[in-house]
């Protein structure tokens, strides 16, 4: 990664402020210029794919294993319902029970949410290559053990043959459920089963908050952390990961992840040698009615009150979860009446997006490394502080007025922000609709452009979204130093959704990963990133 450190003075050059009044209409190209994208254009493939975990350690993978994983996981994700709202389970119907692991006599609380029965505590069954955080046994008692993926899968086949041979450096395709390290009658959940749970509690954007609330009795702990392949423990009292049984090639597998400061919960591909927590789910064939003596049907007065709107990013009811056929994509263009610049647009399902990064010059916007060619010739567009992206000054609309660094704001959606008239800065929910439209967990590969990315990281651009690896500008040390980084390696796009007065959410695409990161990805509002506008 090439990083440039320099003084963080204004490098935006001379700025010609637009007049207070201008044509409010966005000049749309004639209908004859619209292009319906042929599905054959999605056939281009990158020759290789480099994947990395949340750490800096990297492993080379063949494109064949990545492509296999992409298709299998995407299809798995697409099996989830297109309407999380209709599947949301009433917390008053949740049933609490318990099981005893006959192997060591430990008792675990369980909870039935909708059609699924989950362990409501992290597994704490001792086996080699399982760990207590920091080697402290009291952490196992409180938070359960941390397991390498091969151990979670029971790669040795000690308890069943379903996960035998599934480990680090090995690609396996187990059929049916994988018992793994779980007690008899339970198994290690796959990505689809986690997706069903997310839908049952309101969707990806609120799953973390709902599963840690009293209402669903899932007892999500934010204190389990993890252990990397070098034996280093990390993120205690902050993050939680749970292994799934879904692999991602020889060296990676999928886990769920959330953080204590956010409401969302999602899926990540991480190195198999990392050690994470395990939550087991009951086999369908053993879904017997629990004994009446130990069953507690939650009364309405024991249900936690609904979360306030300020603690939820966006309602998931506005998110479509339907994958869009690439042959239905429509390409068009708009002209920004403020400066006459024309941008390609693309309609993907119900949304119309700018298919190029915004390049409208305002205060607190920058060209990568002060190079004007990066803005225009390279097509990167400008990098904007969040306040500039939101139009904190209220120049173009009042919806984002006053939204900036150090300020908590409650904007009226949609927020036009710095976008042309008739367009707005996307919310996290709108990015999520794009995420599902492009195939779900591995949509990053489908949305990346076939140019600007480092060798081995080029995208397929199946939907003509053409995300460029324009990098970002990070305020490294207040206003004294800044760094430009990740050109050729990553794309970053601001959303209008904030986390707190100092940080806001954004969409991120990495060349070394197929996935698209949205829900729990946030940065300082003082960093500068690209803007993609979506049509009102």
From TrEMBL:
What segments bear the compositional bias annotation Low complexity? 23-86, 287-311
- Which stretches does the entry tag as region Disordered? 8-87, 285-311
Annotated InterPro entries: Fib_succ_major (IPR011871)
Ranges for the Fibrobacter succinogenes major paralogous domain?
111-282, 346-535
Q: What is this protein called?
A: Major paralogous domain-containing protein
Q: Which organism is it from?
A: Fibrobacter succinogenes (Bacteroides succinogenes)
